[in-house]
Write a structure and sequence with these properties.
The complex is a heterotrimer of chains A (84), B (333) and C (395).
Chain A lengths: L2 H15 L14 H4 L4 H15 L14 H11 L5
Chain B lengths: L5 E6 H15 L3 E5 L15 H5 L4 E3 L4 H13 L3 E8 H4 L3 H8 L2 H4 L9 E6 L14 H5 L5 E3 L4 H6 L1 H6 L4 E6 L6 E6 L10 E4 L4 E5 L4 H13 L4 E5 L2 E3 L3 H11 L2 E8 L4 H13 L8 E5 L8 H7 L3 H13 L3
Parallel strand pairs in B: 2-3, 2-4, 4-5, 5-7, 6-7, 10-11, 10-13, 13-14
Antiparallel strand pairs in B: 1-8, 6-12, 9-11
Helix pairs in contact in B: 3-5, 10-14, 11-12
Chain C lengths: L1 E4 L9 E7 L6 E2 L4 E6 L4 E5 L4 E6 L6 E3 L3 E6 L24 H4 L5 H10 L15 H16 L14 H24 L2 E9 L1 H12 L9 H15 L5 E4 L2 E4 L5 E3 L1 E2 L5 E2 L2 E2 L7 H16 L3 E2 H5 L3 E5 L18 E5 L3 E7 L2 E15 L5 H16 L10
Parallel strand pairs in C: 5-16, 12-17, 17-18
Antiparallel strand pairs in C: 1-8, 2-4, 2-7, 3-6, 4-5, 6-8, 9-20, 10-11, 12-15, 13-14, 18-20, 19-20
Helix pairs in contact in C: 2-3, 6-9
């Protein structure tokens, strides 16, 4: 999975969790919990959906790396690439 | 045209006495009769002093027989007199109901218009004075039910004074209800007095949110309730019916069509009484203007109790009236 | 013969709109079956039937708004045993035609009906107060329609798509319902408030190591642990868990934990986790996820909307430090958790940094006193200190 694919995937999952958000106008470096008003359960759901779609199981200890949209997309792209 | 009128202080009781005094001075045919109206001055002191001024022929104490002396009054009226018959309370008037309904109210009809009965009957009504269940009821509705009668309920000193003269001038029987709690009401009368009409309700307070329709002794409580409601931003219009038969549908209807809500307040029992009649008329006339069900505040359906707290609980109060108005305006929420 | 009525799905509900029938005349239903979908001012709810029987007649058509308590359908007692015979035809006298049911079932004042015609307002789209539409409701609906028609979304920089007219009237209705209920709560309930900082070092450490070995979808969030602790404590404190009905307190015999769920775009619901104290932690986590998802997007069941016995509001990771909540009538207590944050704590004479949440209790002083309230909060803290004991369920 390349960076663009993972970026699109993350946006798609966000649109399911927060359907009222215009994903085109997001600040990709900001903590999604603030940017999208996600609570811990929403964030958990986001991580679960990513796992369902990509098989990437993000351990809780790595959550700080995936708090932003960019961080999440890069993490998924890297984890989904076998050699990474 | 006329000089500005001055006012003189008086009471509801004195205003009626003054009206009777002037009527008897003006017209030799007018006389007063009833239990204790002469030497004792009347059960409620209304005729105090009249015996001394007019003598026993014109201020006549009668035996304790309502049927008898009301019948005598009817006979005197048929014979060309203009009698004022005082009945001590509306409870006792039931003994004379046969005379009033079957004779006074009916004779014009049964004689093919030949014999009218120009009789005025005054009686005390209402509770609030700890006189218990045989002296405290409000049976105006019994009389307002009867075609052939005119039924008046003066709620103000001006009406108490002003209604007597046109009532005596009416060629047919007139029943006047005086609420016992009003006799000591203090106020003023214009001097010289201004004439009042017999028919027509009066808007005693203008308002926009809800109409309180009442008469007689409940007027003051409705005005108190309206003051209370004004404090919470509800503007209540208060209508004094004045005449219970005929009822002035136009004034009531015009008001309710503006306010869209009505509360009928009556000291009689709720079932099959004055309040039921007025509420039905509002529903008939104003149905498409109503924004809430017509509310009623009436006496609790028990014989009026003697103990002060129970009597107060049984009668319409300003609090109950205000609560009913709030419910109509604000809904049940 | 029984009646299936518009249920009260929470103390703030005065009326509901029937969206859909899930049964037809002749169907046999059992207690607990979902038979209809009802739209409250908050959301669409799957409504369960409370008795066994057979559906005789549907009285209300979909799209109709009726007050709470109005019969929606007639149920016969027979047929519960499984009879599939079609219902006997209802004899109709020629002189007495059955009126169109939906005509009669919108309660509106005569003046409101007249104004609705004048203003072109469809009464079925208007919600009344006290279950009856008055002229003020009609005029508000007309004004709202103009508002949503004239306000263009150009001035709004927020990343929110412009709401449909129904959505905005829905939001307005929800806001009114919340306003009425919260105002009633503050007017009727003498609240008292207690606060306790709870050190979550032990419990979150335990949770992290437990989650570390689990796939993503089996992980438990801290909120679930907090809810479980409150539920278990509530079962031990009957004066925190129950309802005031007609002025008298009735402790509940089970713990249906209301969970305050903030809705995206504003508004709030508090559906209940039924028997939360008896669920094991994983089941509670699953139930919570399901409940929140259905509250936000899907459908809740009527029992979840009406049966809460105690509510928890959890401000999560992003919220404020503490919440002094408003009790959800007719309940008598509300437990709040502020954001979990690293804070300095004293540890055996030294200073350490631990995750801490500020727990608050808003409770009804008619039912309990501060002393018992304090013990209740302390019990929650104690339970959270031994998280392994919160894993299991109870029979």
């Amino acid at each position: 999975m390349n960076a663009q694919d993972s970026h699109d995937l993350v946006l798609r999952v966000i649109a399911q969790i927060a359907p009222d958000v215009d994903v085109g106008s997001l600040d990709e470096d900001r903590d999604m919990r603030r940017e999208l008003d996600l609570d811990s359960l929403d964030f958990q759901t986001l991580v679960e959906r990513i796992a369902e779609e990509t098989g990437v199981q993000i351990p809780e200890t790595d959550y700080p790396q995936v708090r932003s949209l960019r961080g999440m997309a890069e993490y998924v792209a890297a984890a989904g690439t076998p050699s990474a | 045209m006329t000089a500005p009128t001055s006012v003189r202080p008086t009471t509801y009781r004195e205003a009626i006495r003054e009206a009777m005094r002037e009527a008897m001075r003006r017209d030799d045919r007018v006389f007063l009769m009833g239990e204790d109206v002469g030497r004792y001055g009347g059960g409620f002191g209304v005729s105090l002093g009249l015996l001394e001024e007019f003598g026993e022929d014109r201020v006549r104490d009668t035996p304790l027989s309502e049927s008898g002396f009301v019948g005598a009054g009817i006979g005197a009226a048929l014979g060309g007199m203009r009698p004022i018959v005082e009945i001590m309370t509306v409870n006792f008037s039931l003994l004379a109901l046969d005379q009033i309904l079957n004779t006074a109210a009916t004779l014009l009809h049964m004689s093919g218009g030949q014999f009218n009965v120009p009789l005025v009957i005054r009686m005390t009504t209402g509770g609030g004075r700890q006189l218990a269940a045989q002296h405290s009821h409000s049976l105006e509705g019994y009389y307002a039910h009867i075609p052939g009668l005119r039924v008046l309920a003066p709620a103000t000193i001006e009406d108490a004074y002003g209604m007597l003269e046109p009532a005596l001038a009416d060629p047919d029987p007139v029943v006047i209800f005086e609420h016992g709690s009003l006799y000591n009401e203090k106020g003023t009368l214009p001097d010289p007095p201004t004439a009042v009409p017999l028919e027509g309700a009066a808007v005693r307070r203008a308002g926009t949110d809800v109409t309180l329709v009442t008469s007689g002794g409940c007027l003051g409580r409705c005005l108190d309730a309206a003051d209370d409601l004004a404090g919470s931003g509800i503007s209540a219009e208060v209508i004094d019916l004045r005449s219970l038969r005929p009822i002035d549908d136009d004034t009531v209807g015009a008001s309710v069509s503006r306010t869209h809500r009505a509360i009928v307040v009556d000291e009689g029992w709720r079932s099959v009484g004055m309040s039921a009649e007025v509420a039905a008329r509002i529903a008939e006339r104003c149905f498409y203007d109503l924004d809430a069900p017509v509310g009623r505040v009436a006496a609790v359906e028990v014989p009026i109790p003697y103990p002060r707290h129970l009597e107060a609980a049984a009668l319409p109060s300003a609090e109950r009236i205000a609560a009913a108005a709030r419910k109509a305006v604000l809904g049940d929420g | 013969m029984g009646e299936f009525r518009m249920p009260s799905l929470g103390a703030d509900m005065t009326e509901g709109t029937l969206l859909e029938w899930l049964v037809r005349p002749g169907d046999v239903v059992h207690r607990g079956d979902v038979v209809a979908v009802v739209d409250t001012s908050k959301s669409a709810i799957d409504v369960e039937v409370f008795q066994d029987g057979r559906v005789e007649r549907l009285l209300v058509e979909p799209g109709t708004t009726v007050p709470v308590g109005q019969p929606l359908a007639l149920l016969s007692d027979e047929g519960a045993a499984g009879s599939t015979a079609p219902p006997a035809p209802v004899p109709v006298a020629a002189s007495a035609p059955v009126p169109e049911p939906h005509e009669a079932h919108i309660a509106a004042s005569p003046f409101a009906r007249r104004r609705a015609v004048e203003l072109g307002v469809d009464l079925s789209s208007v919600s009344g107060h006290g279950g009856v539409i008055s002229v003020a409701d009609v005029e508000r609906a007309a004004a709202g329609r103009e508002e949503s028609a004239t306000v263009a979304p150009v001035s709004s920089p927020a990343p929110v798509s412009s709401p449909a007219p129904e959505a905005s009237s829905h939001a307005r209705a929800m806001r009114e319902a919340i306003a009425a209920l919260m105002a009633r709560s503050k007017k009727e309930i003498p609240h008292y408030y207690l606060t306790l900082d709870i050190d979550l070092h032990t419990s979150l450490g335990w949770l992290t190591s437990r989650n570390a070995g689990l796939p993503v979808d089996a992980r438990v969030v801290p909120a679930a642990l907090l809810l479980k602790a409150v539920a278990v404590a509530a079962a031990e404190f009957p004066e925190m868990n129950g309802h005031v009905v007609d002025g008298a307190y009735r402790p509940a015999d089970r713990v249906n934990l209301g969970v305050a769920v903030a809705l995206r775009g504003g508004g709030l619901m508090a559906p209940a986790l039924v028997d939360a104290d008896r669920l094991d932690l994983d089941a509670l986590m699953t139930a919570m996820k399901d409940l929140v998802a259905r509250a936000r997007g899907g459908r809740l069941r009527s029992s979840e909307m009406s049966d809460g016995t105690l509510t928890v509001t959890n401000l999560g990771e992003q919220g404020a430090q503490s919440v002094h909540g408003v009790i959800y009538p007719p309940q008598v207590a509300l437990v709040g958790f502020g954001r979990i944050a690293e804070r300095p704590v004293a540890l055996e004479g030294l200073l350490g940094v631990h995750p801490v949440t500020t727990a608050t209790l808003a409770a009804d002083h008619r039912v309990s006193d501060g002393h018992r309230g304090g013990l209740f909060l302390a019990r929650i803290a104690e339970l959270l200190d031994e998280p392994e004991n919160l894993v299991g369920g109870r029979p």
